[in-house]
Amino acid sequence: MVNVRSAAAELLQRWRQRQGFAPELLDQWLSAQADFTDADRRLLTQLVCGVIRRRATLDALLLPWVQRPWQAVEPALRDLLRLGCYQLVILTHIPAYAAVHATVEAAAERGLARAKGFLNAILRRLATLVSDAFAQAPAADAIPLDDPLPPNALAEMVLPVRYRCLRQPLLPAPHDDPVGYLATAFSLPRSLVRRWLERYGWEESLRRAAWSNTPPPLWLRVHTRKISRETFRLRLAAAGIEAQPGPHPQSLYLPDPPPVPLIPGYSEGEFTVQDLSAMEVASALEPLPGWRVLDLCAAPGGKTTHLAELMDDRGTIIACDVDARRLDTLQQLVRRLDLHCIEPRLLAADEPPPAGPYDAVLVDVPCSNTGVLHRRPEARWRWHADDLTPLTRRQTELLLRAVSLVRPGGAVLYSTCSLEPEENEQIVHAVRRAVPHLLIEKEHHALPGRPADGGYYARLRRRP
After folding, report:
1. What's this model's pTM, rounded to 2 decimal places?
2. Where do the CATH 3.40.50.150 domains begin and end in the chain?
3. How far apart are the C-alpha atoms of 164 and 186, rounded to whole Å?
4. For 423-443, how does the pLDDT look when each residue is reduced to its tens digit (9 = 90+)?
């Protein structure tokens, strides 16, 4: 049987070598591991996503004990050091001896038997630094944990962050260096933390930083053409799976879910996984059966298939994307949900979509992902403030193209999973000023944790 830590190290190496995004790599790996228990699957997901998210925190804890330049430590060994550190400091359910032993044994499985002594010495030294005490406030000797969401998180944004106390301070002092503390303790890019502090102040920035490391909640969108939400909820309850109805009429929140393919109704296409804030996007477009709709950036298909469900699978949805692999994921989802009105179209980078006019256009643009940092572990490490200018230029081009393709009286829905004004309202209002026949009918900002992911959408209407 595969050692979970060894599997985690393998997946971290694949991620580091840019062989895919962490969630996709995990799905591929787990689908081939029939002998992995549910507990193994949860731990592997926690380790891989946690180490990627908390990389800056882990490195700050490890550096004082590594007596050579960090970059001189080979990458595979750095992965194992981070894995051990994450278990020792961030996780609370794994005994220190077990974390050290399992990680050292994984080194041998990964062809690093010669480094077992080095790895063992560093992790044991680190273990002596970690206390069994916890705090409720940030400090230079307190490491925020990745605790699950509390039960009341769906009703209001309350994040009682728990901190693991260290026996000596290794972090910047929060009051003396708030940027350094939030960036190091919560493992975030300094430029992003600086933006948040300037815009929102300490309390809200601390809340957002804490949210960025919480395990993402699992929301299901019930395929109500096949089964009602209440009937499906009762079906889950009969299988021992708790599900709580959310504010969207198709939404269910699962506090303690099994692996998604093992949820009843998966193979029958009775649900798809989609965050609550993402569900609201297609609904905001208010598509009608029989419409001709363009989804300009469709893959991997969550919003596309939701449009089809809302249209009662009648009409036509042209689902365009430039990524063949992600478009294949969309087609797999379409088949599982048994939808027939979607026509996938693979476009070259600068190729225009099929000509309009369309009754409605959805343009869910590529963005910085700052509203879903907890859900997409690698997103924070792709953040660079300098990238906003070319990114917003592309977002503006896509929105203008969408506007040019909609019929008079038709609607355009612009959406992102970003919190940055430059990607959201600033683009929409600039396009509105440039195109006189447009009306902004509705705007919505979703703040992360109230009660789902962060993001933005705006519905625009072309004057008849």
Report:
1. 0.91
2. 277-462
3. 13
4. 999 999 999 999 989 999 999
Q: Domain 218-273 has what CATH class?
A: alpha beta
Burial 79-107 (b: 16+ CB within 10 A, else e): bbbbbbbbbbbbbeebebeebbebbbebb
- 417 in catalytic set: yes
Shortest CA distance to 57 belongs to which of 188, 207, 169, 196?
Answer: 188
277-462 CATH fold? Rossmann fold (3.40.50)
Name which of 237, 275, 232, 286 is nearest 253 in CA terms. 275
Contact (CB, 8 A) for 122 and 61: no
CATH number belonging to domain 4-132: 1.10.940.10
At 205, is the pLDDT very low, low, confident or very high (cuts 50, 70, 90)? very high
Strands 358-364 and 292-295: parallel
> If we measure between CA atoms, which residue out of 285, 281, 359, 284 comes closest to residue 318?
359
With cut-offs at 50, 70 and 90, classify the pLDDT of residue 331: very high
Instruction: Look at the alpha carbons of 140, 145, 151, 155 in this order and tell me if their dihedral is positive or negative.
Output: positive
Q: For the chain, first and last CA: distance in Å?
A: 64
